[in-house]
Predict the structure.
Amino acid sequence: MKVIHVVGARPNFMKVGPVIDALKEHKSVTQVLLHTGQHYDANMSQIFFEQLALPAPDINLEIGSGSHAVQTAQTMIAFEQQVLQHRPDWVLVYGDVNSTVAATLVCAKLGIPIAHVEAGLRSFDRSMPEEVNRLVTDQLANLLLTPSPDGDTNLLREGVQPERIHLVGNVMIDTLVRLRPQAEALWPSLRERFGLAGYGLVHLNRPTNVDEPTMLRAILSTLNEIAADLPLLFPIHPRTRKRIQDHGLAPIAQGIQFCEPLGYLEFLALQAHAAMVLTDSGGVQEETTFLQVPCLTLRENTERPITVDVGTNILVGQDMDLLRSEAGRILQGQRKQGTVPPLWDGQAGRRIAEIIVQTERVSSR
Ligand code: UD1
């Protein structure tokens, strides 16, 4: 059995490793790792391959940046050639980025079975490009591998046949569990490098927060206020950096310590030791829930409600007064206590591999 794993952007890389490792245990499986090239800067891509000890991609489509239509269409054109050449039995797609939906559309038209890792998540907000990618991918995928029970509920509501849905848990947490000791080993040098005692960690790059200058200004000036009480470190995505430059917003953010995007291990260590994390990322909501670190999410909704229901996550939306007051509460020691969701146990990759191999056996009988 031949499988192609499709990855393209930063949040995909920590999800693919555990599945590759688990499939290695099944000798009948040949694996091909395909990178679309959606993310291409060394600190957005290569460093993750090194730190996560991923095999070098067998294929890199080198698609790069572009509008959604351009990026998706170019990925489809280049990916179709690879599928026709390799003729995989299964294609595994991860998360909700443009590379995910592009590969899914190609396979659906060619009749190649698709397994979607991290299926079923819904923000119910179609203004988010990721929500559109999730809806399309889940309608077309043959196997839907969900991280939490809300994913199953959403898929069933959308009419997906129950036999296609499998609750496997959170594969990103497999990587976190495996690499936490290595991340921890970096903590002393990170503390020294950034001069950290108590601090908050910031991670923002959603278009709704960073593309609109009025919103970005409001966020930066609120962060600047919070930074007067708690130093804030902000490893900055190229998209956000560009917006701050374009709109001349650097002067209102002088109290915030910015740095280049960090590797997986560095970011994990910084999350684990932070007094709070301020984010709009999906993955960071999950990692802070697992680490039981307070997380304030600058979004009106989340496709990961379990991080709010049982985890340490609080949605503050784009309400800057709420952001200020929730940050103040954490600083006064009123932390939201959370628990780790079921099946976020470091074994999701193994469960995914079992299901794929089982399904292949049944369908080839
Ligand atoms: C993508 C994902 C988003 C994810 C984010 C994580 C989609 C629709 N969005 O958003 O879900 O949270 O990745 O990082 O797929 N750029 C660089 N270097 C790079 C990559 C991008 O400078 O290596 C810059 C380019 O100016 C590019 C911009 O960042 O135009 C946006 O990149 P893109 O891949 O379109 O989306 P992200 O914002 O990274």
Q: What stands out?
A: The chain is about 50% helix and 15% strand.
